Amino acid sequence: MTATTRTRLSPDERREQLLELGLRLFAGSSIDEISIDRLSEEAGISRGLLYHYFGSKQGFREAVVQRAADDLVAQTAPPEGDDPIAKLLASLTAYVDYVIANHQGYRSLVLAAAGGNEAVRAIYERARTRMIDRTFETPGVEALLVDTPRTRLVVRGWVAFVEDTVLTWCDDANGVTRDELVQIVTDALPALVGTAD
Amino acid sequence: MTATTRTRLSPDERREQLLELGLRLFAGSSIDEISIDRLSEEAGISRGLLYHYFGSKQGFREAVVQRAADDLVAQTAPPEGDDPIAKLLASLTAYVDYVIANHQGYRSLVLAAAGGNEAVRAIYERARTRMIDRTFETPGVEALLVDTPRTRLVVRGWVAFVEDTVLTWCDDANGVTRDELVQIVTDALPALVGTAD
DNA sequence: GGCGTTATTGAACGTTCGTCAATAGAGTGT
DNA sequence: ACACTCTATTGACGAACGTTCAATAACGCC
Fold it and tell me: Which domain of life does the protein's organism represent (chains A, B) (predicted)?
């Protein structure tokens, strides 16, 4: 009855399978609450194989976080266009919709990024930077955002505002609609930057 | 040469000693990067004693976080007064100064709260709520903040904005002065709430 | 159908968390 | 000073976990 037949996949397939499993388990709990035993059992492989592919548990965690971050960046790409405000609105709408759809997974990503070690935080930080840069690398944006240390500080804080607000809203919308939420986080940027001038 | 003489303290003293050690080690690294072995060795006690006082490593972590949160709340008490704006400014000034002084420890607290489990997060959440409530339980505040779901959402997001901005500033002030920082985070609240109306 | 490459295994090791009966320090009464 | 009690404290033990590595077997190729 014990299915002792080992299934041999190509490295790419196996890696893919393990990463997807990681994302799935990630959604429910922090990764260091899950033992390698449980991971390998759930994947139907031996403990050793996980080490063969990711070197260590930490390596596995980093790979999964990297994958989640890439997903986020890919699925929230703003449309091509010249109007900074429109781009911002589109980008935030995509972001909000992504968080709504991947609610649990996204929360885990943020938690992992916050609580993880230096390497994990760096991965998330890079994704964040990519998203911000991409939105603001638009001709004509200088009129809205003059590049000063103060503005950079405020924009970074604004990102924290957006993340926290959207996640809180996901837990309990409390009557606030999706469109209102998008409006709130979009309007917040000019409002904050305005006070900084 | 081995000082095998065990020192017997009163439960309160021992508890205090261990909590202070926890705060000290906390500042440098996350608590689950430190083994009970190292903790007990540094405290000059046996492993068993730590379990006697805190039940588990998780229990110890929670106690330390609770202590850190209490410190934060205690040291940022706003002055008695009726003017909401003045109270807000005073409270934020105290908060900024606290973070400046306890930079590392405070960062660890926030990281522990973000990355920790449900119980740890709840402890920090309570402290946060206490600080917010205390600032806004002022006669006449209704003129500034009408209590709607939308406002609550924004105020919560604003707290995230403040935390992130102050911590980022601590890492690299980039020419922004302390007073400017206080001004930024203070002005941010009316700016954000204004857009929500 | 045999062969070589390499994906995969499982047992073994060191470390860390957590438990518990045994031990000894400090106050108390005589 | 001494014995006695209470309980703070210990240290050895077991289970669980991360990690390593030589052995194994599945698949593509000739």
Answer: Bacteria
B116-131 burial code (b ≥16 CB/10 A, e <16): beeebbebbeebbeeb
* Inter-chain CB proximity B115 and A117 less than 8 Å: no
In a domain, B171, yes or no: yes
Cα dihedral across residues A123, B117, A27, A171: positive or negative = negative
Q: Which residue is nearest to nucleotide C9 (CA to C1')?
A: A46
pLDDT tens sequence across B46-87: 999 999 999 999 999 999 999 999 999 999 998 887 788 888
CATH code for the domain in which residue A164 is found: 1.10.357.10
- Model confidence over A119-158: pLDDT tens digits? 999 999 999 999 988 888 888 788 788 889 999 999 999 9
CB contact under 8 A, A157 and B176: no
Q: pLDDT tens digits for B12-46?
A: 999 999 999 999 998 888 888 999 999 999 999 99
Residues A93 and A186 in one domain: yes
Rounded Cα–Cα distance for residues A176 and B174 (Å): 37
Q: Within 7 A of a protein CB, which nucleotides of strand C?
A: 7-12, 15-21, 24-26
Q: B98, B11, B26, B9: which is closest to B64 by C-alpha?
A: B26
Task: Tell me the nearest-neighbour CA distance from A69 into chain B, angstroms.
Answer: 17
Same domain, B76 and B39: no
Work out the minimum CA distance from A58 to partner chain B, whole angstroms.
13
- B124 and B161 fall within a common domain: yes
- What residues contact residue B188 under an 8 Å CB cut-off, 6+ apart? A157, A192, A195, B158, B161, B162
The range of the structural domain enclosing residue A49 comes to 11-63
B148 and B188 in a common domain: yes
A165 near B CB under 8 A: yes
Structural domain count of chain A: 2
